[in-house]
Each structure stands twice: as structure tokens, then as C-alpha cells.
Amino acid sequence: MSLIKPIIVSFFEAVKKDKVKLYNEFSFQHELGIFLRKKLDTNKYNVQFERNVSHFFPGGIDTVKKEIDIAIFSSDQKEKYAIELKYPRNGQYPEQMYSFVKDIQFAEQLKKFGFQHTYCLALVDDRPFYSGNKTDGIYKYFRKECRVYGTIPKPTGAGKNEDFIKLDGKYPFTWEDAGEERRFYVIEI
User: Fold this and answer.
1) For the chain, how many structural domains are there in total?
2) I need a labelling partner for 109 at 20 to 30 A (CA). Which of 10, 65, 119, 167 fits?
3) Would residue 161 count as lying in a domain?
4) pLDDT tens digits, 130-170
5) 154 in a domain, yes or no?
6) Where does residue 125 rank: exposed (0-12), middle (13-18), buried (19+ CB within 10 A)?
């Protein structure tokens, strides 16, 4: 476990106790970033939002996304951590679940290219993300097994069952209580 995960856990404890207010994905990203800045030695670590991957790899690398939601790194970039997060508020359950998987793939790529640890966080306040009668397809990973792995096809829309995401690892997680009917998970890669 890295120095970042305990801070993430304490952040969610503050959310559950209503000490940190989250109302959309933007607030989630910024409140977590502010929390990290308060807990980390800012003389040693930078905490930046929407940092382009090219900042860390000027020669370029091929990744599924181009910007890291929250990048934490030492001035010499010998230590690099990435956090990807989601807080979907408008339903679209299977598509949002697929976005969760895409974040995991991106985190795998960053880890492969030299980040010490990467994290994928999801915060939800709709029960259908973690519970429901449908437990096949993409739903099995988030409702039934609570483990994301393998090749996952796009569940709806253009590219349904043609586009897919292939994960190298297996990532178990637990939906934890975040207060006010919300649940979250943290996957560390």
C-alpha cells in the first residue's frame, strides 16, 4: 500500500461524516485534490488536476485517455501517482460502468509506464450501480462479483459488442458506505 491510499480512505471517512460535501464529479475531484494537498508535504509533492500524460512522457505514449484526473508527483518525477475518479449522477448505468472499466485500463497503462501506484475511485448514489436483478454482462462485475477483469464488451450504443476493453489484471473491490445512501470503491493498481 502506498502513502496515498490511507489518505483516500480518510477522505471518504470525512465524506461519510459530512465534513466534505460532494455534489458532482467536479466537486469530488477538487475536494479530493484539496484534501490531498492538506495531507501531503507540498514541498515534496505536487497535486495537479487534469494533467496531460505528455507532461510525464514527453516522447509520447499510447493510452486510452490523455488527461489524468488527479496527478501527484515529486518535483523530480521519481514518484508518480494517478487517481481516476467517477461520480455519475444521470443514470446510464451500463455506459457509466464501462467508463469505470476504461479508467481501470488507463490506470493499468500508467502503472505499466512507470507510475508507482494508480487508483480508480467511483462514488455513486444510485442503487442500480451496485444492486439489481440484472447480474449478467457488465452488471456481473459491479453487482454480482465485485471484481473487474478480462475482456469487457461495450454494453450499449454504437460499438455495442464490437468495441471492448481488455484488462491485464483482476481487480476485486468492495462497495463501501459513503453516507447519504452513497457507495464508493477504491481500486489500487
Assistant:
1) 1
2) 10
3) no
4) 999 999 999 999 999 999 999 999 998 888 878 999 999 99
5) no
6) middle
The rounded distance, in Å, linking the Cα atoms of 104 and 100 is: 7
Q: What is the pTM of this model?
A: 0.96
* pLDDT tens column, 47-82: 999 999 999 999 889 999 999 999 999 999 999 999
For residue 162, being part of any structural domain is answered with no
Write out the three cell numbers for 114: 512507470
Q: Please state, in angstroms and as integers, the Cα–Cα distance from residue 11 to each residue in 54, 91, 167, following that order.
A: 28, 25, 28
Give me the residue label for grid cell 479530493. Answer: 32
Task: State the residue range of the domain holding 8.
Answer: 4-126+175-188
